[in-house]
Automatic annotation (TrEMBL):
This is Acetoacetyl-CoA synthetase. Pfam families: ACAS_N, AMP-binding, AMP-binding_C. It comes from Streptomyces violaceusniger. InterPro entries: Acac_CoA_synth, ACAS_N, AMP-bd_C, AMP-bd_C_sf, AMP-binding_CS, AMP-dep_synth/lig_dom, ANL_N_sf. PANTHER family: ACETOACETYL-COA SYNTHETASE.
């Protein structure tokens, strides 16, 4: 066993008082053994006895009475059948036993707020809008779509839609009209709810033209509801304010466990975005477990996760309502007017759980932000997700926050709108590692022969069904796109597309996407192993590495870097980068070239475009590689394509360290 000491350990009192310990006490008689005080024993039971575990989650959180019988009536991947004959409704679960003047939602923008919305007011607005949608012809199974910033309007619109048994989908206003159309037009929606503008980075973004363009692209619409002061500027649109001010009774419709709740979308970087459909029951169960047991949220707690409605973390944020917690919906940049803006907001609102990205935390460190100066006494957990979280950065964050705040790194996906890997209030934390697989997630690492491995890199697979796995993909009648996305390599086993190592103390190390694997001379390497040592250099803002297979068996592994202001990549810095990689990863991780880039392209949710860049460098047609509307800086597509073309024109292939190049190639 490993002798490495954890970087953070819960106190005995914290373990004793945690909700997950209370759940373990509740579940122990059902399991026939004591599950208290041993997370890995609780996890093992949760994946060995899938029926017993998910039935226990249902009963512990007091969901509606369910029919007798197994939780998982038919075990299949894909196609598991959960809780047949049961009915519930996401919106009904949000409002069950919750009324009055306690705060339900807090909204904040860069220039207003915070504004608290009570449970009474939230219920009134949801009921009013649900009545209006009914009058507009929305029926069970219809689609209502949003083009909205992260405010209370998106929450109300979602809950009203779900309460009717209609299906919700939303794009944030970080997307252009064309990018929103590529997603929402697939659904043939009945009603569009759209804001006329939003705030970001101190700028007001006028979206009136985008709303009109999006409306024109959705021929099935029977109505558009406009949100904002300029609502009158959208001809023929109905006023949000008028439709949410009535007095109406909230009466959510009970629906089957697998009734469609929402459609979330893949990034769409390599083709038409996939519409991923999740059901009411699966989402409710999974988020009660995820937020209630893993993040320890309780009624009255405050959850602030910086996100937009385009990212699955918005769905997780809103799900805090299922536990009676208060989501803080922040519209704006986490770094405006200063890099510490998100921390200042968390301290001002005394949040219990704060969520952000490694990129934002790295920016805080480079800007000299003292997290301790903005550390609310209420902060129990800092959630970090979205990309690799280097160990040195996690050490810095943990050192700033001290032992009273657990730093929780999680990894999952829009595919299941939750985490596969993470932590719990009772698990230790090792920097650079995810503490454990999540409850109910039968994670394994498969080696090249398709067998489980320990202590070495393998494919992340999930061996048994989860309730929040997709019901299906939109417009995929025969299921071929769904099966091809996850089950093409190991039939009957979910392959997620990440490289992981399961350690001998039960934690998990994430190495990056397996479809972006660096495979130099037959040795597989993860890109995150390179990003860690490179991005901690003070001269480097960000890095991207890819491995490009070439004709004749050659292999080219360039590293693209962006630098901090006023820094150029010269021979001295190039050698410093190589030395950091040699000592922080290994000599075999040293790239063939180090190229200074004008920027690193990301999806709209912040993930680096490793696979599309790899294909551009190989010379594949830009139109077939990436949708510019899904990229945060689409002008970079041409730059990377140009770099690939220049490389192919050169004689031979790069073999060993070559001279650095400027952004001009």
């Amino acid at each position: 066993m490993s002798t490495r000491r954890p970087d953070w350990t819960p106190t005995p009192q914290a373990v004793e008082n945690s909700r997950i310990t209370d759940f373990a006490r509740f579940a122990s008689p059902r399991a026939g053994r004591d599950l208290v005080g041993d997370y890995h024993a609780l996890w093992a039971w949760s994946v060995d006895d899938v029926n017993g575990f998910w039935a226990a989650v249902w009963d512990y959180f007091r969901l509606p009475e369910r029919p007798a019988g197994p939780a998982l009536a038919a075990e299949a991947l894909p196609g598991g059948v959960w809780f047949p004959g049961s009915t519930l409704n996401y919106t009904a679960e949000v409002f069950r036993d919750r009324t009055g003047t306690d705060t339900a939602v807090i909204t904040v923008t860069e220039d207003t707020g915070p504004v608290a919305i009570t449970w009474h007011e939230l219920r009134r607005q949801v009921a009013s809008l649900a009545q209006a949608l009914t009058e507009l012809g929305v029926r069970m199974g219809d689609r209502v779509v949003g083009y909205l910033p992260n405010g209370v309007q998106a929450v109300v619109a979602f809950l009203a839609t779900a309460g009717l048994g209609a299906t919700w989908a939303v794009c944030g206003q970080d997307y252009t009209a064309a990018a929103a159309e590529a997603r929402l037009a697939q659904l043939r929606p009945t009603v569009l709810i759209a804001a006329t503008g939003s705030l970001h980075g101190g700028k007001h973004i006028d979206r009136r033209a985008d709303v009109q363009a999006l409306r024109d692209a959705l021929p099935t619409l029977t109505a558009t509801i406009a949100v904002g002061d300029a609502a009158g500027a959208v001809p023929g649109a109905l006023s949000w304010s008028a439709l949410t001010q009535r007095d109406a009774e909230l009466a959510p419709v009970p629906v089957p466990f697998d009734h469609p709740l929402w459609v979330v979308f893949s990034s769409g970087t390599t083709g038409r975005p996939k519409g991923i459909v999740h059901g009411h029951g699966g989402v409710v169960l999974e988020q009660l477990k995820n937020l209630g047991l893993h993040l320890g949220l309780r009624s009255g707690d405050r959850l602030l996760w910086h996100t937009t409605p385009s990212w699955m973390m918005w769905n997780v944020l809103v799900a805090g309502l299922l536990l009676g917690a208060t989501p803080v919906c922040y519209e704006g940049s986490p770094a405006y007017p200063g890099t510490d803006a998100l921390w200042r907001l968390a301290a001002r609102l005394e949040v219990n759980v704060l969520g952000t990205s490694p990129g934002y935390l790295a920016a805080c460190r480079k800007a000299g932000v003292r997290l301790a100066d903005h550390h609310p006494a209420s902060l129990e957990r800092l959630g970090v997700t979205g990309s690799a979280f280097p160990a040195d950065l996690q050490h810095w964050v943990a050192g700033e926050l001290g032992s009273r705040t657990q730093v929780v790194c999680t990894s999952g996906g829009t595919d299941v709108v939750t985490a596969f890997l993470g932590a719990a209030p009772t698990t230790p934390v090792w920097a650079g590692e995810l503490s454990a697989p999540c409850l109910g997630v039968a994670v394994e690492a498969f080696g090249p022969d398709g067998r489980p491995v320990r202590g070495e890199v393998g494919e992340l697979v999930v061996l048994r069904p989860m309730p929040s796995m997709p019901l299906y993909f939109w417009d995929d009648p025969d299921g071929s796109r769904y099966r091809g996305a996850y089950f093409d390599v190991y039939p009957g086993i979910w392959r997620h597309g990440d490289w992981i190592t399961i350690t001998d103390h039960g934690s998990v190390i994430l190495h990056g996407r397996s479809d972006a694997t660096l495979n130099r001379h037959g040795i597989r390497m993860g890109s995150s192993d390179i990003y860690g040592p490179v991005e901690q250099l003070e001269e480097i803002a960000e890095a991207l590495v890819v491995g490009v297979e070439q004709d004749g068996g050659g292999y080219w592994m360039p590293l693209f870097v962006t630098t901090t202001e006023g820094i150029d990549v010269d021979d001295v810095l190039s050698e410093k980068i190589r030395d950091a990689i040699r000592h922080g990863a290994s000599p075999r991780h040293v790239p063939d070239e180090i190229i200074q880039a004008p920027g690193i392209p990301h999806t709209r949710t912040g993930k680096k475009l490793e696979v599309p860049v790899k294909r551009l460098l190989r010379g594949e047609a830009r139109r077939s590689v990436v949708d510019p509307g899904s990229v945060d800086r689409p002008e970079l597509i041409d730059w990377y394509a140009h770099i690939g073309a220049a490389h192919r024109r050169r004689d031979g292939t790069a073999a060993g360290p070559a001279a650095s190049r400027s952004p001009n190639g």
